[in-house]
Write a structure and sequence with these properties.
This protein has 218 residues and is an alpha+beta fold. Among the domains are: 41 residues; 107 residues, Glutaredoxin, CATH 3.40.30.10. It is 46% helix and 14% strand. The chain is elongated.
Length: 218
């Protein structure tokens, strides 16, 4: 191969490499443009989940089991094994909370949180709630402590009926959001009034006796 042929081969190789690079960049740009809307949607969903308590930053991703001082925690507990029914209970519960209690979520009065009861982040709390299977639990928080809670076991029976399922979740949450009944103002030690005395016949009035010298009528 003479010098002229070698130069031609080098030139062709250079242009070939440049063409391949340009094609690769064009393909990357096209792929990026196609993926950009999907990536934006994923980012928006992740931000919404983090805002609602579904994702907590930090090591392990689990965060503290109770993450609010005052308000209502809506927990969904699941295990390592995820069946279709379990996923349906989670998605329908989350959808109902988002659609029916959006204002409480925005104000931070309610938090939706997903925990795995077979992992350390959720095991202790699940034990307190007596969790043995995927469940929805409502917990009213006061000063960072659980004041009251209830486990919504009927979700398993209603999961195939979405309207009834949503109504059940709404009703249970609404009851937990209601303020606790005020105790009766009357003192428990206060005595009841004495019952009225039974009526009795008036005492007999003695008739006057006539004097001894008064003649009796014939």
């Amino acid at each position: 191969m003479n010098l002229k042929q070698a130069a031609a081969v080098c030139l062709i190789s250079f242009f070939s490499a440049t063409l391949v690079l340009l094609i690769a960049r064009a393909l990357d740009l096209q792929a990026a443009s196609r993926l950009e809307p999907q990536l934006e949607q994923i980012v928006a969903e992740l931000q919404a989940l983090r805002k609602q308590g579904g994702i907590v930053a930090g090591p392990g991703g689990g965060g503290k089991a109770t993450s609010m001082d005052d308000g209502l925690m809506v927990y969904y507990f699941h295990s390592n094994t995820r069946c279709d029914t379990c996923r349906a209970i989670q998605s329908q519960s989350h959808e109902t909370v988002q659609s029916s209690f959006a204002s409480q979520l925005d104000r931070g009065e309610m938090v939706w949180k997903v925990l795995n009861y077979e992992e350390a982040a959720g095991a202790e709390l699940a034990e307190g709630f007596e969790i043995h299977m995927p469940s929805v639990v409502l917990a009213r928080m006061e000063s960072g402590q659980i004041k009251d809670w209830r486990r919504l076991d009927r979700v398993w029976a209603l999961v195939s009926d979405k309207p009834a399922f949503a109504e059940y979740i709404r009703d249970e949450i609404s009851q937990m959001l209601e303020p606790a009944d005020e105790p009766d103002s009357a003192s428990p030690d206060s005595e009841a009034p004495d019952p009225p005395l039974p009526e009795t016949d008036p005492p007999e009035i003695p008739l006057p006796t006539p004097p001894a010298d008064t003649p009796l009528p014939e």
